[in-house]
Structure formats: structure tokens, C-alpha cells
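Reviewer 2 asked us to include a model.

Predict the structure of this chain.
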Amino acid sequence: MIDEARPIFVQIAEQIEDDIIAGSLAEESQVPSTNEFAAFYRINPATAGKGVNRLVDDGILYKKRGIGMFVAEGARARLIQARKDRFRDEFVRPLIAEAAKLGIDPDQLSDMISTEGVTA
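Predicted model (C-alpha cells):
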């Protein structure tokens, strides 16, 4: 499902990343072609190519000339680490800062998270 509020090529790159993290695209396995992405999402192949090439630039995918794109060795571990780092920066650090403003100490915060995890 395409989110009109975000660039399509970013969403394609994120979908490939999600598939690698989930294990449905294994390391050294072939990724669908830009034409396949274009047909599936009904978009211009150049847009699909921009998303795929972004992952090539990041070392997540690599090209085999005349064959297609493949998932690079170590891609899953790199993606997981990058997502953990982004999660820390976007969610954990602001959470800790807000807790400190409210006088919530680390033990209380941990209890809140543990309790919420049980009821969620």
C-alpha cells in the first residue's frame, strides 16, 4: 500500500529492508526487478530503480551484471543495527528526556514500560 505523503522510492526501499529483516529476502537471494516493482505498484520503473539504487548505495543490495540485484552478505545485521540506532534516537532518547522532566526515575520508567508491555 503506497502512502501518498511519502516518496514512493523511499517506501520501496523500506519494503525491501523490511523483507530482509523479516527473513523473506535472505542474504544472497535475488530481489525483484525494478520492472516487477513498477508493475506491482503501478509506478514508473525509474522510481522503482531509485529505491533499489538507494539500497545499492548503502551496501544492502549489489548488482550482478545481466542477472539482477541481490541481497548483500551481512545486510540483515546492518539493517537491524541501523533501525535500533534510529529507534534509540527517535523514541528512547526523547522518552528518557520527558521522563526526567516529569521526575520519573529510571526504575519507575522501566516499571511503566514493563507494565505497559503486559497490557498492550
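The chain has five helices and two strands. The chain has a mean pLDDT of 91. We have added this to the supplementary material.
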